[in-house]
Amino acid sequence: MGKQTKYKKSKQEKLQKLLNTILLLMVICSLGIIMWEVIYAKLDSEIIDALDKTYIVMWAILTIEHIIRLVRLKSRNALKDYLKFNKSELAYLVLSIILIPLGIISVAFRFGRWIIILKMPSVIKRFNDEKTFQVIADIIAIVLILFFLIPFLNVIAVSLSGAGEIVNIIPKNIDLYALKYVIHDQTFLRSFINSIFITVVGTAISIITLTMAAYPLSKPDMPLRKTVMIFFIIMMLFSGGMAAHILVVNALGLTDTIWALIFPSVINVYYLLLIKGFFESIPIELEESAKLDGANNFVVLWKIFIPMSAPMIATVAFFTAISYWNNINNSILYITTNQKIYPVPMYIKNFLGRNPMDVAQQMPELLPYWDNIKMSYILLSIIPIACAYPFIFKYLRNDISAGAVKG
Amino acid sequence: MKTNGRYREKGTFFEQLKKNGNLFMFYIPAFTFAVIFSYIPMFGLIMAFKENPNLFGSKSAFEGILNADWVGLDNFRKIFSQEQVINALRNTLIISLLKIVIIFPIPIFLAIIINEMRHKVVKKTLEITMYLPYFLSWATIGGIFIAILNKDTGLVNNFLEWLGHERVPFVTSNSTFRSVLVTTAAWKDVGWSTITYMAAITALDRNQIEAAKIDGASKFQQIKYVTLPGIMPVIVVMLILRIGYIMNAGFEQVYVLYSPFIKETGDILDTYTYRLVRESSLIPQYALSTAVGLFNSVVAFILVTMGNFFSKKFLNKSIW
Lengths: 407, 320
Known about the structure:
The structure holds two protein chains of two kinds.
Chain A: H1 2-39, H2 45-72, H3 76-85, H4 87-105, H5 116-124, H6 129-160, H7 177-183, H8 186-217, H9 225-237, H10 241-251, H11 269-280, H12 284-292, H13 297-308, H14 310-326, H15 329-334, H16 344-352, H17 356-362, H18 370-406
Chain B: H1 2-10, H2 14-20, H3 28-43, H4 61-67, H5 74-80, H6 83-103, H7 105-116, H8 120-131, H9 138-148, H10 155-162, H11 177-202, H12 206-214, H13 219-244, H14 251-257, H15 263-266, H16 269-278, H17 286-315
Helix pairs in contact in B: 5-17, 6-11, 7-11, 8-11, 9-14, 11-13, 12-13, 13-17, 16-17
């Protein structure tokens, strides 16, 4: 007996599953038809007509199935449950009965077909929840991967392609002229050296300054600690504005020197607070015992605090370095004429802004390769970041899992 | 440093001073940079209430600013009677709001999805690709997007043409410029912002989700009733902080993508103040620029402080 009922049930289930799959396919097809008609503008009117008819047929089937299902709901409780959990499907039924026939009569109501989206959740709901979620998640993920990746692929493809080709993501007619030109561009090389100098020196100054200031700030028995904190926090909240900054840098004689790209962004109050917070978590006994052994403050900072907070300081140093490498704000504000000290991003910005016709007068052979050269500059500027990226990525992953521990 | 000296004589903190007084030396580099590159420019804010300083006729910029005549609120009256400033203010707010409304929710859902994903390869590929744009400079990103949105050769327009649509000059057209700003901002920041929420989700108690699962909650219900409420405090703090920066519509981004064609929809307060100083045809308008900047930072200050106040009061979390 038991076996028989089990068999019977699974057959019914199979039928139900088949029905669900058909319904899902029909909903997806309907949605696909509408989207295709909107996205692909080259369709013949005959095909559009056929697609419209398919949509209406599918709408009719969906509606009939839906009504049958509603009629079959016998008990009051079942109806109540249905109303509670399938509001959107019911809304779809009511709206579609009004809108779809209107859409047949007049083109203006064709937008009404989009309400098929309302039907989607209740159809999807009938499938294994985990599986559907994974499928939807995969689809979203792949769309996003394409969104993030395609610009990079385009950069690589264009910089490798020959002159005058219209390139999307696959290089055509491979030609390394543009890349070779960019690699042999002495001024671009110099901008790289500038960038490296700015990043290394800037990060060093910034980290030394911040750790030194964070050390006394982290001591509970440091006099005027609160006042000094307020002094720094005001920096975070108020700014004198562009004009005043330009005037100060000008008055110091730093305009058009490389120091104007370093000094104004040495202090980042947020990082200062981060380091200070980390210093505060270092046990005070360590410091006291070192002091008993005759160590002074410099020794304590250098031998205890900095080694113990090395991961934190490395992180801050790393993000400071990234922001120095990418900074164009300082170059925009404080460099007026001296293009020799342009860092890489500003060099690129400047090059992209140039009129190809001006260049054509001096070097006419560059003109056909103009787009390729632009992209080659961009490609080369991405390469250093791309080389550092594996380390960044590893660090980010650790950071996320650390969140789980810290809570 | 002088005030510190004065307190030292008072002897109020005498014991502490005796022990830690020499530590004030550690402040010297930070104080120097702070005073020169933050506090002295703040003194420059008085330019907003003065005539434009005549920098060519005076010995130093400092003297020029001091000698300029006071004009009260004239500069503010002048800027707010200009159509351009009103336009820039409107653009700043619209662009910021668009960015908040469209971009802010994406990382939250992305974090939830990534956290639940089982397909290791897809998951890792997505993570690798989505963090990368954050580490690029706006100059580079601007260059990439200007190229792929180019009307004649750009990838996006090639695709549109293949689909049978007309080519659109995205970056140089008033009707599309703001969507370019939102898209590029999303491209750069979405992946990075996801990290905060991923860390928050990892920190959640996994048992709650398991319990919900056993009770028969669907995936959607688990997300709606367990995960989202769990990370809600983080979401609220991030939103408050984000709203605090509403006056900052992204100077570098707009500067890189800017062209005179899209002045009407793309000119923000920051680019306007910048043009007053660096690109105005005759004399740099320091006073007007500072007035616009002062207005901008006063509003920003109020917003940031309010945001911090609320997040401190209701969520016990603050930025300082």
